[in-house]
Amino acid sequence: MSLKVNLSTLAQLRSVAFNLLVIGAGCLLIGLAVNGILLTHHFVGGGIVGLAMLVYYLAPVCSVALFSILLNIPVFVVGWRLVGHRFFFYSLAGAMILAASLKWVVVPVPVDDKILSAILAGIITGAGMGLIMRSMGSVGGVSILSVVLRHRWSVRPGTTAMAFNVLVLLGAAYTASLDEALYTFIYLFVSAKVTDVVVTGLSQRKAVFIISPQWKSISQGILQGLGRGATVIPAKGAFTGGEQTMLYTVVSMQNIGRLKELVRAVDPHAFVVLSDTLEVMGRGIGNQPLS
Asked: pLDDT tens digits for 58-100?
């Protein structure tokens, strides 16, 4: 019994250490992008850090790191009762680590062109945010606010982040110029795309629906030719009322071409729908973030 308890405690400690390490690595990258590129070119970041930068540009009485801490305080106070305790404490640790990175990670990045700087900053920040999102926490700010708004008023997290960043862009246009706001937009766009790649991985999966009278032959091809599973779903045509069979499967991007060739060879008139997946969990085909 004691051995089981010790193993469980050890696993929990390893999980905590791993998540803090991932959050710390992400924060270091964000600190590098902010101090090495964004502040140098008078760009603005996203989220609470972006708001802290706007306040810093208007009233440089203290550092961006201290402004980010001050702006995060009311967010954490509101979020204390509305988010999970594990997520809350990881996010609190993340906010502190991020503030430390903003204060002490000062490495000049020798890129003079503003467009290239915006792109590079977006890549670095996106990689950092992606790492943080693969952990069990966040760096506070908009992440906590998104959970609170979804809990109280069912506002989608993406809507909250977009609205916040729109306000940041408007603030950038007001404090600097429209040019700086557009460079900031490029930075935010690249950052969002890189974050998606890091979170979901390069091995994005596709969900595929196939309706065909030759469903048995197609399903055998999927099982034997692609080495993937498939689900057989009974269906009925809305117009004809006829009974049909639909296949559902999830395949990697590398197998999409082979799947199309298989379906065309068996039934050129098959009805096929491919859709993106956000996250897939399961042995052999999953691409879920780290837990």
From this structure: 999 999 999 999 999 999 988 887 788 888 899 999 999 999 9
Parallel/antiparallel/unpaired status of strands 231-236 and 243-252 = antiparallel
109 and 82 in contact (C-beta within 8 Å)? no
Report which of 247, 206, 251, 245 is spatially closest to residue 225, judged by C-alpha positions. 251
Condensed to tens digits (0 to 9), the pLDDT of residues 215-269 reads: 999 999 999 988 888 999 999 888 888 889 999 999 887 788 889 999 999 999 9
Q: Tell me the pLDDT tens digit for each residue of 33-44.
A: 999 999 999 899
Element (H, E) at 157: helix 157-175
Domain limit, last residue, from 155, 176, 200: 200
- Would you call 243 helix, strand, or coil by DSSP? strand
Beta bridge partners of 235: 244
CB atoms within 10 A of CB 171: 20
Which token pair is 204?
């994005």
Q: Distance between CA 184 and CA 152 in Å, rounded?
A: 31
Spatial contact of 230 and 222, defined as CB atoms under 8 Å apart: yes
Domain membership of residue 49 (yes or no) is: yes
What does the alpha-carbon distance between residue 126 and residue 122 come to, in Å, rounded to a whole number? 6
Residue 273 — φ and ψ, nearest 5°?
Answer: -125, 125
Same-domain check for residues 135 and 260: no
